[in-house]
Each structure stands twice: as C-alpha cells, then as structure tokens.
Amino acid sequence: MTTHLGIPGSPAAEPVPPAGFPTTARLIDGGDMDCGSGLLLLITRAMRRLEDGDLLAIRSAEPSVQVDLPAWAEMVGNDIAGVGSETDQGPWWFAVRKGSASTTVFSTGERIPVGHRIWVYTNFDCNLACLYCCAESSPKAAARRVDIPTARKVFAEFGELGGREVILTGGEPFMHPDLGELVDAAAGFERTLLTNAMIFGRGNRRKMLEDMDRSVKLQVSLDSAGPELHDSQRGAGSWARALDGIGLAKSLGFQVRVAATMLDEDPEGVTALHARLDEIGIAQDDRVIRPVAAEGYAETGIHVSLDDLEPEPTLTADGAWWHPVAVTNPNMRIADSPLPLSEVFGVVNDILDVQGVAAASGREVFRCA
Length: 369
Ligand code: SF4
Hints:
The protein is α/β, with parallel strands linked by helices. The chain is 31% helix and 18% strand. The protein has 2 domains: 3-97, 2-Layer Sandwich (Translation Initiation Factor IF3), CATH 3.30.110.40; 117-360, TIM Barrel (Alpha-Beta Barrel), CATH 3.20.20.70. Iron/sulfur cluster (SF4) binds at residues 126, 128-130, 133, 135, 137, 170-172, 196, 221, 234.
C-alpha cells in the first residue's frame, strides 16, 4: 500500500508515480528539499518504520537529489530499486529498498585504553611464509629477536605505568631460543602467546612448552574448518599440524584461543569453522575472525592508517609501532626503540589528541546552525 507521509506545504493530493515505477510501501514527497536540508531526516524516519526489503518511494523537485540520493543509499546499505521522473525537469522519483543492517563475520572489539596492553614481536623469523603475512616473516627473514634484558626493562616499566596485558607474537615465537625466559619476564601480566602451533611438538621447544606457566593463553592460527583454505594461505600440511598442536596444547592444560584470518567475508566458511572449533573444544570467547590487512606480504586487504586504526602499541627489537598489523609500514612507526615505554605511549596519546582536535574542528566546519 502506498502511504503519503507528506510535509507541511506539500500538495494535499497524492502525486502519481511515473509509468513503470515500482509499487512501494510508503511515499515521501520532499517538495523542493535537498538531501542537506531535511530530506534525509524525513527519509530516515520513514525507513525506521519499514521492514528490511520494503520499498520507500521518494519524490523530489530538487535536481541535486539525482546525485545525492543514490550516493546516500549506497553509503547506508540501501538499494535504489527504481527511478523515474514526471517530466525532463522533474520532479524525480526514487524507489529505495531498505537494506538489512550490515553484518560482518569479522570479530569486533572495544578500544583498549593506551597503556593497558602492549604487543611484543619476540622475533620475525618463522617456519612458514604465509601469503598475507603482515610482518613479512618467513624462514629467511632476519630474526630481529628481542633480548631478555630489554624485555625485562620493558615489562618493568610497563608495570610502573599500570600496564595489564602483554601479547607476544612474531614471526613464530617458538623460534626464539629464549622464549621461555621472555614469557617468564612478563609474569604478573595477563599473557597471550601467538603461535602457529606447528613446531613445539618435539625436542627443546616441547620442553619449553611443557615448562610454561599454564596461565599463559596460546592463540593459534587456524583459518578454516578443513585444510583447503588454510593450506592454500599458509602452506601444504600446515592445517593438520596446527590441529595437532592445538590438541597437544590442550592436553597439557593450556587455554587455547583460535584466530582465523580471511580475505573475504565468508559466512559459510565461518559457520563451518565454528562447528569445527565446537568439536575440538575451543570456547566461543576464544575465537577471533579477522580480515587480512593490506600490509607486509598481503597484496589486498583492509587498508590501515593512523586515522582509521585504534592504537595498540607494539614493540619490536628495534622500534615501536602503532599496531601489530603495521610493523612493516614506515608510516606507522612511532619510535626507533621499544624504550622508554613512556615515550611510546606519549607519542600515541599525542597523536590521539591531534586526531581529536582535527575531528572536532571538522565538525565545526560543517555546522548548519
Ligand atoms: S602469518 Fe604468522 S605463521 Fe604466517 S608467516 Fe607470518 S608470522 Fe609466520
């Protein structure tokens, strides 16, 4: 049924849509309003009363809507299902289909206050060379290992500054010969160790794992429910070995988290992965689905910059960075040394302040009243 919501001053008689215009649930007659002068408010209010998939007719005599309305519809996830005009000079008609609220398979989270969490790249060499590795790690990568005295100083200062959580990553941390000591040096903080779980099954690394405090959480990369996608991204046989590693870590009493990295939104793949994780006993809260960042070896993926990425200060043997996915990006480097940590946090906070001022001044530029 077509309903005329109307606005003050609009014609009392209901306008007739152009020939061939789709049947719609409601009509907004915007008169000569443009998108910047109230039309969008009327449309937004009307859209709230519609179900997903319903059509809203919008009529406007303002020429600028021919450009602005489709741009708005695309931005908010609605489709333009039909257009028409009463004459060559307008008024113009648009049928807008209400889109469903945007959903994503990727995990989201809250901003971590600066100073609560640090990431530490223990080393950059890795037994794998994944297609999308943001750290450009591989068996041939320079190790760039964090040494134990530096780590102790970092964690001591982090404690003084009120830090709570340390996440150790790489490269593959189990390629660091002193990983056990590094992990011990971070005792007292909530500790998570990221690993591909492939090389700690035997020898010294097995002993390192067995000796590790069970309060350390292990976060293992597993990209898919079966080997196909995971192996294509990470190397033949890596899925089965990761699964073995998860089993070993769980049998030794570790809390295991799983992180999947995906290039595309893949709801079916994610559903299958969750079913697999149910089978192997990974808790719901211990699952992370993350997109590929267009960093390091990744040729496609999410673009990241200081402006669109929440900071998660990240330390390497030779510097400090805005975020762990950006340690190969010179534009995201915030210090040339991991110490002093107060300076690293200070730079991050200064940048956030500048961004806050810029955002506020941007709002003023567009103030309408
Ligand atoms: S993504 Fe992880 S496992 Fe793969 S090469 Fe990089 S550091 Fe190694």
